[in-house]
Design brief:
Strand order of the largest sheet: 1-2-4-5-6-7-8-12
Helix content: 25-40%
Number of strands: 21
Largest sheet: 8 strands, parallel, barrel
Number of helices: 10
Length: 415
């Protein structure tokens, strides 16, 4: 059984460090102004160079998303930035535009080129075409099922293939959606999606304005626009049997808590499968952990052709049972406690857990003190507190808080 790379989103330095701590083999981030995400999920060249240095020190690779649908006005910036990326020792660039591929090959031919899923590669001849253009890895279209992926991998053993296994799914073919631009003049294809597929809509007939048409799911079709989140953790043996080189998690716009949870969970599952493939069985705890991140319910997407594609419900918005409490700044071994940078409001009655790469440790929030040792009943975002911890916690480890009221809701902190 091949050992695939676990590829994690890292929209900034903090998320990059989190991904490394919890077990990423590689991370991907946006190249400033030229990726298909907003600026909050991109790094400047200075930040990217620092991120590459940190990642390489831990034997983790860094891929830069340069996958905008470029206009003529973008090309000069692309020409200027490619040498900078080469100098920073980036491991590969994720590209969708043939023109940008041509520029990379002429300006910095040593940079590895990964073809974005936006290029919607769905067949073996397309794989061979892109191979002949110098592409070394292809992120296959999300619309392929596992059998189709396995056939492509068998027919092109020289080509690295990458697939998405977890995260939000776009309702448009291979993510090439025009809805955001049509509604708000914010183009998803240039990194500025306003996610209108997540909004609630009513369909009305003009002569009956007070009688909206309710769209209901039947045995073949489902909710009009918005998909549940992709999750294939329960089917990792089937995924690995396809022969792909990289398993990709979606979510450059999401929080460090999300990055920690999905990285840790998939790392544990993959390690378990690779170490004992004959006796492997899916652990229900892994799915339970993934449900503790912000999600819209889960689906296997297109992986199995007999499954529904966009199974969801109008009642599902964002579901989250836990939220980040804070990040460990340092461990005080003498007093067996952690210094926590607080991310959300905490009280002494909260249920807290320290997330280690291989374990989850309950934290007694009733023993919460300020920097002078004074006992606290509450702590606020932006502050620092001490919490007891018998086990050493590495800097950057996350502490999470259980949300008592776990009904559906959106939280901007984890979108």
């Amino acid at each position: 059984m091949n050992k695939p790379e676990l590829l994690i989103p890292a929209g900034n330095i903090e998320k990059l460090k989190t991904a490394i701590l919890y077990g990423a083999d590689a991370v991907y981030t946006g190249v400033s102004g030229l990726s298909l995400r907003a600026g909050s999920a991109e790094m400047s060249l200075v930040e990217l160079a620092e991120g590459i240095r940190i990642a390489h020190a831990h034997n983790v690779k860094v891929y830069g998303a340069l996958n905008t649908f470029a206009r003529n006005s973008d090309l000069q910036k692309v020409k200027e930035i490619i040498p900078e990326l080469a100098s920073a020792n980036i491991d590969a660039l994720i590209v969708s535009d043939p023109g940008i591929i041509r520029l990379i090959r002429s300006i910095a031919p040593s940079i590895q080129i990964h073809l974005s899923t936006q290029a919607n590669t769905t067949n073996i001849e397309a794989v061979r075409f892109w191979r002949d253009q110098g592409v070394t890895r292809i992120v296959l279209a999300r619309e392929l099922n596992l059998k189709e992926i396995a056939h492509i991998a068998a027919d092109a053993p020289e080509m690295e293939l990458e697939i998405f296994v977890h995260g939000a799914m776009c309702m448009a073919y291979s993510g090439r959606c025009f809805l955001s631009y049509f509604r708000n003049r914010r183009s998803a294809n240039q990194g500025d999606c306003s996610q209108p597929c997540r909004w609630e809509y009513l369909l009305r007939e003009s002569t009956r304005p007070d009688e909206p048409l309710i769209l209901e799911e039947d045995e073949r079709y489902s909710y009009l626009l918005s998909s549940r989140d992709l999750c294939l953790i329960e089917y990792l043996p089937e995924v690995l049997s396809c022969g792909v080189a990289s398993l990709k998690i979606e979510g450059r716009m999401k929080s460090s808590y999300y990055v920690a949870m999905v990285t840790r969970t998939y790392r544990q599952a993959l390690n378990n499968l690779l170490s004992q493939p004959e006796s492997y069985h899916n652990n229900a705890r892994w799915m339970d952990e993934l449900r503790k991140t912000s999600n819209r319910g889960f689906t296997t997407g297109f992986a199995f052709s007999e499954e529904k594609i966009n199974a969801t419900s109008p009642d599902i918005k964002y579901i989250q049972t836990h939220e980040p409490a804070g990040t460990v700044r340092q461990y005080d071994a003498a007093h067996k406690r952690i210094l926590l940078d607080v991310k959300n409001h905490l009280t002494s009655g909260d249920e807290l857990e320290l997330l280690l790469p291989e374990d989850t440790i309950k934290i007694d929030a009733s023993i919460m003190t300020d920097l002078n040792g004074n006992k606290l009943a509450a702590a606020h975002s932006g502050g620092q507190i001490y919490l007891p911890a018998e086990i050493k916690a590495p800097a950057g480890a996350l502490v999470r808080k259980k949300i008592i009221k776990s009904e559906n809701y959106r939280r901007s902190a984890d979108r």
